[in-house]
Design goal:
Blueprint (H helix, E strand, L loop, with lengths): L11 E5 L9 H13 L4 E5 L14 H5 L6
Parallel strand pairs: 1-2
Length: 72
């Protein structure tokens, strides 16, 4: 199956299931954001679980770090 020509060359980065805190410490999340930004994606999509167990885990620093993501 082929994508329509309009999507040719489109660069999409997906970040999913970060589970910040338990499985992904702050330093690794910062590095993931930096690597994503270096890719100069047209679109960055955040999917999956941001936290592992507690709603407070998505507050800060994950929200602050993820807000640094950039796309065209």
């Amino acid at each position: 199956m082929h994508c329509p020509e309009a999507f040719s060359g489109l660069r999409v980065v997906q970040i999913s299931d970060i589970h910040h805190g338990l499985f992904l410490p702050k330093a690794m999340l910062i590095e993931a954001v930096q690597q994503t930004n270096r890719l100069r994606a047209d679109l960055v999509v955040l999917t999956g679980d941001f936290r592992h167990l507690f709603p407070a885990q998505i507050s800060n620093p994950p929200r602050k770090i993820l807000s640094r993501l950039r796309s065209r």
